[in-house]
């Protein structure tokens, strides 16, 4: 029974899954926490990865592995393979001005055409521009730029600073995958022309002020080796890893209801959206993963539950006791502004209030329908770009609500499959590891 390992190095924690390569059955697992914050020393991720592997019983009987992780974070390395400064994570917004500067210089249409993305503060390209403008001494030291999962893969393969890693600081051994590369803002998700690596070096230079080593982008079944000659896959960004772990294919749209919401579909064709509503990511299988993000998701239900003084189970019971449409009561749930549509200063509103409609049941129903309507707007944005949508796969904490599961097909307009709770990013990475183990 060959074992493979999949890792999810997320914002909050590191999860490790060891699975049977043939069946996908989980054999062992481990976990370790990450520190809070939007700017984190990557050494904390490395310690957590080692701890989680130990918690899972170690690597000795593992034959292949891959790492999935949070997208977009900037890990800047000097020529000796040392981290120059704390990594800016996807949720660090200090580079919002840098995003606006890049759009002003190149134009949203041109950036979308070249990379599939219109820059926002999340993306790596904006963090590099911020580094250039705000910390020029650190920017001048940058020899290589990696993403969180790229860097962890490099370290676990045995590379790093001379005094920390047996294989030394070989920057050219940095590798990544299509999905994470597509979230940088300086890589084009279409098939690169012969003799090129897909990176848009002009955009990298415009951001950082100079060229640098970037991770080699591995194809879906390409692999490298670690110091023990195990096969190592290219890994995945978190959403692409989840899609792989869920077994999502063309026609599927994953609707993730967590603190924020994400709507992403597996597509055979690349998308370009100059409005920036849909990010034109790639997936890790050779396809594409157009994605829409919303700010308001499960916490909408938390907020209305607090107003009504009920737990989630009772909120569901109330919502399901009301009629569809909540007798005209409608909640626009922009409690924290909104990203889709782009209304950062918006607030929530409750309309359609009459003596008849303003009941506890209708308020609960309006909360569920309002939250799902925000996610449905993401589906419409995907449809507008010609992405075929045939069924929705519902995941995340919010998907455990009975009312959400019952009402989602009505609001989303698609058949809904509710996935069992699981660590799908780690399972997707394990599935990739099994694939490279089976490759010739």
From TrEMBL:
Q: Report the superkingdom from the record.
A: Bacteria
What reaction(s) does this enzyme catalyze? D-xylulose + ATP = D-xylulose 5-phosphate + ADP + H(+)
- EC assignment: the record states 2.7.1.17
Q: Which PROSITE patterns match?
A: FGGY_KINASES_2 (PS00445)
Q: Does the keyword Transmembrane apply?
A: no
> Where does the sequence pass through the membrane?
none
Active site as annotated: 238
Gene Ontology biological-process entries: D-xylose metabolic process; xylulose catabolic process
Which residue positions hold the site described Important for activity? 8
Sorted UniProt keywords: ATP-binding, Carbohydrate metabolism, Kinase, Nucleotide-binding, Transferase, Xylose metabolism
Keyword check for Transferase, yes or no. Answer: yes
Q: Which GO terms describe its molecular function?
A: ATP binding; D-xylulokinase activity
| Domain Carbohydrate kinase FGGY C-terminal, residue spans | 254-434
Every Carbohydrate kinase FGGY N-terminal domain range: 4-218
Q: Which Pfam families match?
A: FGGY_C, FGGY_N
Q: Where does substrate bind?
A: 71-72
Enzyme class per UniProt: transferase
List the InterPro entries. Answer: ATPase_NBD, Carb_kinase_FGGY, Carb_kinase_FGGY_CS, FGGY_C, FGGY_Carb_Kinase, FGGY_N, Xylulokinase
Cited HAMAP family: XylB (MF_02220)
Q: What does this protein do?
A: Catalyzes the phosphorylation of D-xylulose to D-xylulose 5-phosphate.
Family recorded in the similarity comment: Belongs to the FGGY kinase family.
Put simply, this protein is called Xylulose kinase
């Amino acid at each position: 029974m060959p074992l493979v390992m999949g890792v999810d190095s997320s914002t909050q924690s590191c999860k490790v899954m060891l699975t049977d390569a043939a069946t996908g059955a989980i054999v062992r697992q481990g976990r370790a926490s990450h520190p809070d914050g939007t700017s984190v020393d990557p050494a904390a991720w490395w310690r957590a990865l080692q701890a989680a592997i130990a918690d899972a019983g170690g690597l000795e009987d593992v034959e292949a592995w891959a790492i999935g992780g949070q997208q977009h974070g900037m890990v800047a390395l000097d020529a000796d393979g040392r981290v120059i400064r704390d990594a800016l994570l996807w949720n660090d917004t200090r580079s919002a001005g840098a995003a606006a500067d890049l759009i002003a210089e190149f134009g949203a249409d041109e950036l979308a055409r070249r990379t599939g993305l219109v820059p926002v503060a999340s993306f790596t390209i904006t963090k590099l521009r911020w580094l250039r403008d705000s910390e020029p001494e650190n920017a001048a030291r940058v020899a290589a730029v990696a993403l969180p999962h790229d860097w962890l893969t490099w370290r676990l393969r045995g590379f790093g600073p001379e005094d920390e890693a047996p294989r030394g600081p070989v920057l050219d051994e940095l590798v990544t995958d299509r999905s994470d590369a597509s979230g940088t803002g300086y890589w084009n998700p279409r098939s690169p022309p012969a003799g090129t690596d897909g990176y848009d070096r002009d955009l990298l230079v415009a951001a950082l002020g100079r060229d640098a080593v970037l991770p080699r982008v591995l194809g879906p079944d390409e692999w490298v080796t670690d110091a023990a000659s195990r096969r190592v896959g290219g890994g995945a960004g978190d959403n692409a890893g989840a899609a792989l772990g869920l077994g999502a294919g063309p026609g599927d749209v994953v609707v993730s209801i967590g603190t924020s919401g994400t709507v992403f579909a597996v597509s055979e064709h690349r998308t370009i959206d100059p409005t920036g509503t849909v990010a034109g990511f790639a997936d890790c299988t050779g396809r594409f993963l157009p994605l829409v993000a919303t700010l308001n998701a499960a916490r909408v239900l938390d907020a209305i539950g607090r107003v009504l003084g009920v737990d989630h189970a009772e909120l569901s019971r109330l919502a399901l006791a009301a009629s569809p449409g909540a007798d005209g009561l409608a909640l626009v749930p922009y409690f924290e502004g909104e990203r889709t549509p782009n209304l950062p200063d918006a607030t929530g509103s409750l309309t359609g209030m009459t003596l008849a409609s303003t009941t506890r049941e209708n308020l609960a129903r309006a909360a569920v329908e309002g939250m799902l309507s925000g996610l449905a707007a993401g589906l419409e944005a995907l449809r507008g770009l010609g992405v075929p949508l045939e069924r929705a796969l519902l995941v995340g904490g919010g998907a455990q609500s009975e009312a959400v599961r019952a009402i989602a097909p009505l609001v989303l307009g698609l058949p809904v499959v509710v996935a069992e709770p699981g660590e799908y990013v780690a399972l997707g990475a394990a599935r990739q590891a099994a694939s490279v183990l089976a490759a010739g």
